[in-house]
Design goal:
Layout (H helix, E strand, L loop, with lengths): L17 H13 L12 E5 L2 E4 L4 E4 L2 H4 L8 H11 L13 H13 L6 E6 L2 H16 L3 E5 L8 H6 L3 H4 L10 E4 L13 H18 L6 E6 L2 E2 L5 E2 L2 H14 L2 E5 L23 E4 L10 E6 H4 L15 H15 L1 H24 L3 E7 L2 E9 L4 E2 L1 H13 L2 E2 L1 E3 L5 E4 L7 H21 L1
Parallel strand pairs: 3-16, 5-6, 5-7, 7-10, 10-11
Antiparallel strand pairs: 1-2, 2-3, 4-12, 8-9, 11-12, 13-14, 14-15, 14-18, 17-18
Helix pairs in contact: 3-11, 4-11, 8-9, 12-14, 13-14
Length: 451
């Protein structure tokens, strides 16, 4: 627990304050209403795990830019690299010429990605672009069109990525028709398994359902790729059981299907390893990364077996902005930091510290239905009834509002929007983390008591 001397939250106005409210009014007038915002805080500047709003309040960031800020806000090495690069080369496009930062970053990712096979990397701007390119490459390599994805998946907002995404009401409503040749299979979400099954029985059943689906729903000879998040993000931080991932790997090997691991939110050191799938023995054919790869700058990557990455015709991949020199320099410094044993050990410490506190909440508060995650990727799921597991999205929103007013930045998750995800920068101090958890705990207690 924190002490008064360790306090990092400093509130000089209510949150949101008058300047934040004025900025929000300008946002409402200038920006489409479809661009949601988890809080009404107007951001001025940030460093490490601390954010200062336009009213001068200092808050603790527990959302981490939705997983983009694993190395913290404005890390010195990243800032210096961007400044240095800005004076040399801001843009020329990798479609026009070659430049050192693009090639260096690709070499780093090729060496770091799971598996000892020869690999190559394509750099793009966003996670959605990475997913689209990974699927295109798999289709080109296999000569097939079908793509298998999973219940609860989130893979992005561009047309193919959105088609692969599960959560309809928040992301897909009104935007159809969606892409064809997509086949969605059941996910082993252990929290929502039938009460009559043990965890192992449920995993067995899910594996059998997958095998049956390869016969009844799509012929494996028509499937180009299986794409899966080793830890589902938007669905509510659902770790995939290693045995299930191994089962998918075997089926992909049997049928010549490309195994794509979407590490956009779960990768880059968030779970205590560079890639979350490294907690298993499964080696994917292709890995897509984004978010914390660029330390807050827009960059994403597709890293995979050389024969897959080389399978398209010349000019079949690429984009004007992909692999910006500025973002590449930022990513190089971020990956250096994330790859260090000290950083990955710190992610484990942060995760253990959060998990220990969350476990007490599950015992204390009737609203808390489940706590879960992997490493420093942790989440609380709120329900109205623990037996029925009835989602409590309105209570979740009230908890966030109270916690934000107490000095936190937070964002929801979950298929029912009834979860709070915790993605603090890995560089957060123990004192800052405890202080943030104190604020969130008080918010949960207030809402739990009120019901």
């Amino acid at each position: 627990m924190r002490t008064a001397a360790a306090q990092s939250i400093r509130l000089i106005t209510e949150v949101p304050g008058p300047k934040s409210r004025a900025l929000l009014a300008r946002r409402v007038a200038a920006i489409p209403s479809g661009l949601g915002n988890s809080t009404e805080v107007g951001i001025s500047h940030a460093h490490g795990a601390l954010v200062t709003d336009v009213d001068g309040n200092q808050l603790i960031d527990m959302a981490g830019g939705i997983g983009m800020i694993n190395v913290g806000h404005t890390p010195d090495a990243v800032v210096e690299a961007i400044r240095d690069q800005a004076g040399k080369l801001i843009h020329c496009s990798a479609l026009v010429g070659s430049y050192e930062p693009y090639i260096e970053l690709c070499e780093m990712l090729n060496a770091a990605a799971p598996g000892d096979m020869a690999k190559k990397t394509l750099l793009v701007n966003t996670g959605s672009e990475a997913v689209e390119n990974a699927v295109n490459l798999a289709r080109s390599f296999t000569g097939r069109q079908g793509v298998i994805c999973f219940d609860g998946a989130y893979h992005g907002r561009t047309q193919l990525a959105l088609s692969l995404t599960s959560k309809y009401s928040l992301f897909k409503k009104g935007f159809g028709p969606f892409c064809s040749e997509i086949y969605r299979f059941a996910t082993p979400n252990l929290y929502r398994k039938p009460a009559t099954m043990s965890d192992e029985q449920f995993i067995d059943w899910i594996c059998a359902e997958f095998d049956n689906g390869l016969i009844a729903r799509v012929d494996p000879s028509a499937v180009a790729a299986v794409i899966i998040e080793p830890v589902q993000g938007e669905a509510g931080f659902v770790p995939m059981p290693p045995r299930f991932l191994a089962h998918l790997r075997r089926r992909c090997d049997e049928h010549g299907i490309v195994f794509i691991a979407d590490e956009i939110q779960s990768g880059m050191g968030r779970t205590g390893k560079l890639f979350s799938i490294e907690h298993t023995t499964v080696v994917p054919d292709v890995v897509v990364t984004a978010k914390s790869l660029g330390a807050g700058t827009p960059i994403a990557a597709v890293t995979g077996r050389s024969e897959i990455m080389d399978s398209t015709h010349r000019g079949g991949v690429g984009g004007t902005y992909g692999g910006s020199p500025l973002a590449c320099r930022a990513a190089i410094e971020a990956v250096k930091q994330i790859q260090s044993p000290a950083f990955q050990q710190r992610a484990e410490v942060v995760g253990d510290r959060i998990a220990a506190r969350l476990d007490t909440w599950k015992e204390r508060f009737s609203l808390v239905g489940d706590v879960r995650g992997l490493g420093a990727m942790r989440l609380v799921e709120f329900v109205l009834d623990r037996q029925a597991r009835t989602p409590a999205p309105e209570h979740t929103l009230r908890i966030i509002q109270r916690a934000v007013s107490g000095g936190l930045l937070l964002i929801r998750a979950g298929l029912y929007s009834n979860c709070i995800r915790l993605l603090p920068p890995i560089v957060i101090t123990n004192e800052q983390l405890d202080e943030a958890l104190d604020v969130l705990e008080a918010a949960i207690a207030e809402v739990d008591d009120a019901r």
